[in-house]
Amino acid sequence: MKKITWLWTALVTPFKQWNGIDNEVDYEALDRLLDMQIDWWVDGVLFLWTTAENPTLSQTEWKSIVEFGIKKLAWKAKIMVNIWNYSTKESIETAHLYDQIDGIDAYLVVNPYYSKPTQTWLLKHFTTIADSTSRDIVLYNILWRTWVNLETDTLVKIVNSCSNVVAVKEASGDLDQMKEVITATWDDFSVLSWDDGLTYDLIQNWWDGVISVASNCVPAKMRDLVKASLGKDKIAEELHIDLQELFSKLFMQTNPLPAKTYLASKWIIQETFRLPICEMDEKERGEFLNFVEKSSF
């Protein structure tokens, strides 16, 4: 049985206003965000991805956010934690930190960024991390952010070597490769969309779900879309079309700026970030808020 499927939310991190560098995590707002995910029955929540402004958080904050999420989501939704790092050693140390905490279902691991590793490096990096923990591992292949593609042959070697590598968030951008991944992996291996706007189309081609940014804002609509798409319900295409403008607007500037601006406009969180991330540019922010005000979302 596939372990990582349907709808997962890559959760934002709400902050209290302070000075832009040391904004404190807003746990009351985090509680409200998690209530939204629970109320609309998302299948899982991904903590500490870049959508959560992970690089600006301390290790102490990582642990505190994860423990808060586990307590809140227990028996209500699954939990995935990002342990990505350029360093294999530090990724393993982060995994060992979370291995001591009950209630985590899987770890997310991304291609090492910037250094443009070879396929041999990728194979060793991912298998070494997977072998260091008994928890399930989800790989994230994102060429346009890391400048390296996890090729299908390499992925298959990793999956065959490490039984706890159970899914991939596939963002190579190559549709032929995406189809190859599905054909080349076992039936219990999950392939997930990285892009809300492609969720419907990819599920039609036998993908298993999405790790979503939009479900921070509209978890009910994303749940309906994923459920209808996986169920081959004819309403799925209509939902997909209705949500396209929102999907586009949520990436009109760098994620998570629009998502957090949306949530702040609904009085769920403050419109607060940690530098180097800051508010949307004035023109784009005005355009985005005008869209939110006039839309039904």
What does this structure look like?
The protein is of the alpha/beta class. The mean pLDDT is 92. Strand 6, helix 7 (175-184) and strand 7 form a beta-alpha-beta unit. The protein has 12 helices and 8 strands. The protein has an 8-stranded parallel sheet with strand order 7-6-5-4-3-2-1-8.
Number of strands: 8
Rg over CA atoms, rounded to whole Å, is 18 Å
Q: Assign an overall shape.
A: globular
- As a percent range, the share of strand residues is 5-15%
Task: Name the helix and strand elements from N-terminus to C-terminus, one letter apiece.
Answer: EHEHEHEHEHHEHEHEHHHH
- In the CATH hierarchy, the architecture is Alpha-Beta Barrel
Identify the CATH class.
Alpha Beta
Helical proportion, percent range: 40-55%
Helix/strand-derived class?
A: alpha/beta
What is the name of the CATH superfamily?
Aldolase class I
Biggest sheet, spatial arrangement of strands? 7-6-5-4-3-2-1-8
Largest sheet: 8 strands, parallel
Number of domains: 1
Q: Might you state the CATH topology name?
A: TIM Barrel
Count of DSSP-assigned helices: 12
The first-to-last residue Cα distance is: 34 Å
Question: If you average the pLDDT, what whole number results?
Answer: 92
Low-confidence stretches: none
